[in-house]
Amino acid sequence: MTLSKIIAACFLAAAFGLWALAEEPRKDEQKKDQPAQDQQKKDDGKKDDSKAKDEGKKDEPKSEPYKAEITAKRVNVRSGPGTNYHSLFKASKGYVVIVRGVEGEWARLQVPAGCLLWIHRDYVDLDEASSTGRVTGDNVNVRIAPVEDADIVGQVSEGVQVCVTGEEGQWYEIKAPDAASLWVHTSYIKRLETDK
To answer: Is 121 buried (19+), middle (13-18) or exposed (0-12) by CB count in 10 A?
Structure first.
């Protein structure tokens, strides 16, 4: 299964015509999630999905989630807080997102309902009768595709229940857990007045 098919399947349920699968912009196009001086993508360099830490998301101040809308056409929504992270899709102007927090100039978004992500099966005890699994490791990475070098969009703790929707090789496809997040540049969102 190609990465583009996985990403398309992930967001199909949330799409309803409001989101379009993204293509990486050509070098001569302006990216819709500037600026270029953003932090470099962190590479944990570890293959062990149970222990790798996501250093780019620590010490974030806690705030209440709020609704916001996308303010430009075809805004890149990324797997991490920077232009070095994969653009998973483009959000249309007016689309409503839930912002969970802000890190620098990047807003951390709740993953849309229907988005499917991936977790390594070595860290999930699956109850096949109910299609639910219990995470058996601590800080287990949740990824955008069923490969070890795919971007990490969150980590789940030991004991967390996940809903398994499919499998490929050594990976389970799961509904996005609460710990997963996507990212958009703050210059392309506006807090909704009714949500203050």
So the answer is: middle
Q: Tens of pLDDT along 118-163?
A: 999 999 999 988 899 999 999 999 999 999 999 999 999 999 999 9
20 contacts 89 by C-beta, under 8 angstroms: yes
As given in the structure block, the two tokens for residue 7 are: 């990403």
Q: Whole-model pTM?
A: 0.68
Cα separation, 102 vs 114, in Å, equals: 23
- Does residue 105 contact residue 38 with C-beta atoms inside 8 Å? yes
The owner of tokens 């932090």 is: 39
Summarised one tens digit per residue, pLDDT across range 62-86 is: 578 999 999 999 999 999 999 999 9
Amino acid at 58: K
Six token digits for residue 46: 């570890």
